[in-house]
Specification:
Oligomer: single chain
Number of strands: 21
CATH superfamily of the largest domain: Dipeptide-binding Protein, Domain 3
Number of helices: 16
Shape: globular
CATH topology of the largest domain: Dipeptide-binding Protein, domain 3
CATH class of the largest domain: Alpha Beta
Amino acid sequence: MSATLKRRSALALGAAAGLARPAIAQSAAKTLRFVPHANLSTPDPLWSSALIAFDAAYMFADQLFGLDAQLLPKPQMLEGYTLSDDRLTWRFKLREGLWFHDGEPVRAKDAVASIKRWSGRDLFGKRMAAQLAEMKAIDDRSFEIRLTKPFAHLPYGLGATSCFILPERIVGAKDAFTQITEAVGSGPFRFLADEWDHSSRAAFARFDKYVPRQERPEVWSGGKIAYVDRVEWHIIPDTGTAATALQKGEVDWLERPLFDLLPKLRGTPGVKVEVVDPLGTWTEIYFNNGIAPFDNPKLRRALFPAVVQSDFIQSVVGDQSELMRTGVGPFLPTSPFASGVGMEALTGPRSIEAARKLVKESGYNGELIVQMVPTELPTANAYGMVLHQLLKEIGLNVRLDATDWGSLLSRWNAKENTEKGAWNIFAVGWAGLWITNPGSHLPLHAHKANPRMEALTEQWFDAPDLAAQRKVCEEMQLLAFEEPPFIPVGQYFVPQAHRDNVTDIVRAPVTPFWGVKKG
């Protein structure tokens, strides 16, 4: 297909996606037209680790705690909480005036059911569950969590990752590995299910009964005030078409414009380009260590000498070096748990020949390696192709499986590898927040969990202070180089582009829509 034909097809798709829908459009100043970085395949951020699911969840749902700019948890849905003197009993009280979008009040039993489901999958939640004595609703607004031993990280866990409070009728009978399809929460925007087309659009409307906190918004905490009546997500796979739509004012905001287009967008009157996410994206080569041949740690280690982080990140940012960082290890560089332990595996001399030698010494015998790469995510596609070339250069028999992001996620999340869905490796990026500590760092725990890493995670949760936690993280980092569940390949920062009449965007690791104004 020619580039021109692709562009025309994308333009047609953009029109079909609703760039001009006068029948439902409200006044231009009250409708925010947004182009997300990926298609929304599910609104369930616990079932899916895709960042786009969190973008949606933060619109239609809310959390008990919200993180501030220092990544400290502050009460969000809560009026307050107490902790007993023995630090075993937490008692929480919900704010007054919390309503779900289906017209039902938010009750303590909804929080209990949501926390229970969350505790089946999230690392902080699983830790809480392992030392849970009892969790119960006391009345409609109060509930209690009683533990067998102290867990100081509980407020952070409830506010940092995927513990969104949903109605008991939805989550009560669902475990953490069963996808939720009904997007009903109590957040500042309602999800408009009847307008959701998985391939082209999603829409949200301001929830008039939402009562925001009175503090100023900061990351995911404070007052979440919806200043626009409606937010429309338009899926435009062709990034050039999306940029043109922004320049013409047909859309208001691009979440991840193509890096090559940033200079042109910066020079366009009426368009502003800025970094919204202060933590950026941490990238990795992720192994399926549960099946051959990458169940062999020697073969996984063999890749280290061939990895040049700048090759991966420059494939995304080009010559815009201010938007990249190399020398990146298993923990985000700005994390208190980042260290130089074992980093020579990534920062020492680079050599394809050394990697080839290690491949032969590992016992690899030409087995087929299936590499997944997403087709509609330009960044992941770019560094995925760098990985593909690297695998071939060091002598691996690799087949590229190009697939859409939703299908990649399904194969990644599958508990069993079938002949049709089996995969061995892919490159992927993570929102930086998840990589700041062992409690949310899912890649550390690999596709098949390493008992040694799990034991160290337990030690980190129990460590009495920051110094002790850092020491444990050094051991985790050494193990990540000895028996790698992944290989870090750098960090980059994606500027967002928007019309200059879109203001007051809250700086956060996942795109927030509260506080945003459109003049």
